[in-house]
Design brief:
Two copies of one chain form a homodimer.
Chain A (H helix, E strand, L loop, with lengths): L2 E6 L7 H16 L3 E6 L5 H12 L5 H25 L4 E4 L6 E3 L8 E4 L2 H8 L3 E5 L2 E3 L6 E3 L4 H12 L4 E6 L20 E3 H9 L7 H10 L3 E5 L7 E4 L18 E5 L2 E10 L4 H10 L8 E3 L8 E9 H13 L1 H4 L3 E5 L2 E7 L9 H11 L6 E5 L2 E7 L3 H11 L17
Helix pairs in contact in A: 1-3, 2-3, 5-7, 6-7, 11-12
Chain lengths: ~425, ~425
């Protein structure tokens, strides 16, 4: 008998019919003799509808009250799910984040989990009941107030519960069959990945893969919680995310492939500070100004200084939403920073090729550059980690580039993948 | 500076616009220098919509989960109301029933308040904030579970908070101008009552007047909480419900009128057990059978035994929803009870004439019978209390009877009342 944590997202519980289907799946896991704990998101578009209501009531809703409002969403889905399961003859009890012991910081809207004390969840399991826990929400001990973990927090709830309860596996149910070598909507020959390491999954998630939240993967890695990303529709095995040092709970350990997957995103903008005096400390000065805006800097490239002018160009990418703030901050400090000009460019895409096997293989970068060159695609920035090579291209070339790389690295499947309407969120 | 508790029902917070209007009214009370605590119901039809969802998911929802589900309703309205008030520049904090210390029994769906410990509400007031409390909901200490007080429980929440906080007045905002001498939709010349005693209000509420819940009035009387029932639309003074021994907080004490108001309802059915042997203990035997069904018996009439047969008829009324259960129980015991026949009649109406002055006046019943006789209306059952006379008539005659009595007892106003679409719920 195993202890299994299952997470169902909003699209899996969008209406009464979906809730009954999910209840059936949970009941089957219980019938098979397992202890089951479920983390569930708000139904379908509930969160967006509540946000819209808040917007109609006041332009800038108080964060504490916004959390109070949004947590009504999972309260509805978890109660319906619990009563549906009970209707199928299994014991079930629903718990709010607070009742399930999800203790967080007091940062409304983006609280961090500081402790998980699932006493009532354990008691429910001991009584033979299935525990249904509200995803996304927590409780701050100092203020006594309800908090939320931010968008996608339900994945984190599931992983945190799995860690605290020492679960055998944490199953993340979604509307796709698992993690793919790349987005099947862009590359029809994308393949489902059977096994992927935490490290690779982190790089993919950080580079734009949407199926799992970065934060949940980080939490899972830190606590050694094996994840199984799978479809709530098909019942087929999905993708297991695991720690290679710990090994897999089931099946054999396999050689890591050189390239596991390709992620991409077009939500970043490139800012270039041109004509910067090439003196020590200048870059630090620039990034201190950027840091004050709280913008999330991703890639940074500094061009070699032109020997005759002793001036250099520094480029970096930030999420588009932060772009304007960064440009304004840099313009305000123009005199102190003594740069020549500032360029803002949001017509870029970032493509990341990820694979644990890259560590032991040479020539990956060369192969990547050649593939893009042959496809006629210009590379504007490059950044690498131990198991990732990222490049920035024009946004118009993104899809072509992803397809070229998918083929060049031998990731193409023999047949096209079934593509669902959803995005795995 | 006074401490004022205000209660707003679902129709007062049905959409974003209504919420903003209510927020404005609350803010004005605060601006006038008062401490304000608000009890709020779920928005408009939210509760019914949630019940419908539950019904789609499973035929008989688990009561614990149903309470978890329904309490999402006030969570939404209270958070929106608090953020709307904050948007107007006043401090506001929303609290769930549990956070506000509404400690109840564990009876899901119809929990009773056993203690009110509004520590966080008091702290909010001390900080100068307006406290917005979820109506209708509570918390059981033994199980740690969320409970609901049953339909209309928000009135009780408001009254219980007012009692625990020793508030100066508890204002019940609704969609009518106050308590009327009778329903203005039936008698256009109905008058708003300025002042009414708890005792009279209890009799009216128990006899079908819908503007205030019986339970809330009982709680208010027991704890000496003066109520002010008023419109959330007009801002005009409404009806003050008070304890005559304590006197009014404002204005002069007045002589109680002989007749204060007329209530009526058509939601009861009459059951007649005919041909019952007129021997001691027979009635007790019958009502023991009825009691086992948990039906709520209202009026009971036993006809004088026919001397020649030594048989008697016993009639009583129960809510229609209980009718079938009672009939089945009586049929099952037919042999033991040895009655002749059983009649079920749901085409009846109950009309109650209420007035504290009745105690010191004679001839009220005679006046009532004459008025109905002159209107050509037959009386089927009669029951009286110290300050009430109730009669049962055919349901078809109900409105005619109410109008005749309203005129006969001098309650008609000089002009017609404004009638709103709502019912005060």
């Amino acid at each position: 008998m195993a202890l299994i944590v299952q997470k169902f997202g909003g699209s899996s519980v969008a209406d009464a019919e979906s809730i009954k289907r999910v209840a059936k799946r949970i009941s089957e896991t219980r019938r098979a003799g397992n202890d089951v704990v479920v983390a569930v998101s708000a139904m379908g578009d509930t969160t967006d509808e509540l946000l819209e209501l808040a917007d109609e009531v006041t332009p800038i809703p108080a964060p504490r009250e916004l959390d109070m409002l949004l947590t009504a969403g999972e309260r509805i889905s978890m109660a319906l799910l619990a009563m549906a399961i009970k209707g199928m003859g299994f014991e079930a009890l629903s718990f709010t984040g607070s009742q399930a012991g999800m203790i967080t910081t007091a940062d409304h809207g983006s609280a961090k989990i500081v402790d998980v004390t699932p006493k009532r969840v354990r008691e429910a399991l001991d009584q033979g009941a299935i525990a249904i826990v509200a995803g996304f929400q927590g409780f701050n001990r100092g203020t006594g107030d309800i908090t939320t973990l931010g968008r996608g927090g339900s994945d984190t709830t599931a992983v945190a519960l799995a860690a605290a309860l020492d679960a055998d596996v944490c199953e993340i149910y979604t509307d796709v069959d698992g993690v793919f070598t790349t987005d099947p909507r862009v590359v029809p020959l994308a393949r489902k990945i059977d096994r992927i390491t935490f490290e690779e999954m982190l790089e993919l998630a950080a580079s734009g893969a949407k199926v799992l939240h970065l934060r949940a993967v980080e939490y899972a890695r830190r606590h050694g919680v094996e994840l199984h990303v799978r479809s709530s529709f098909s019942g087929e095995p999905g993708t297991v995310v695991y720690d290679p040092e710990k090994g897999l709970s089931e099946g054999e350990h396999m050689e890591e492939p050189i390239i596991t997957g390709i992620a991409f995103e077009k939500s970043e903008a490139k800012i270039t500070v041109a004509g910067v005096p090439d003196v020590p400390g200048k870059a630090a000065q620039i990034f201190e100004v950027v840091a004050k805006t709280n913008a999330n800097i991703d890639m940074i490239v500094q061009n070699v200084s032109a020997a005759d002018t002793n001036l250099t160009d520094i480029s970096f990418t930030v999420p588009m939403g932060d772009g304007r703030r960064v440009v304004e901050a840099l313009e305000a400090e123009r005199e102190a920073l003594a740069y020549g000009s500032l360029q803002y460019d949001d017509q870029i895409a970032k493509i990341a090729v990820v694979g644990g096997g890259m560590r032991d293989a040479s020539g990956v970068s060369a192969q990547l550059f050649r593939a893009l060159y042959e496809a006629g695609i210009n590379i504007e920035m490059i950044s690498t980690s131990e198991i990732r090579v990222s490049v920035v291209t024009r946004v118009d070339h993104m899809e072509k580039a992803v397809r070229a790389l998918h083929t060049a690295f031998g990731l193409d499947a023999e047949a096209e993948a079934t593509v669902y309407a959803g995005t795995g969120r």
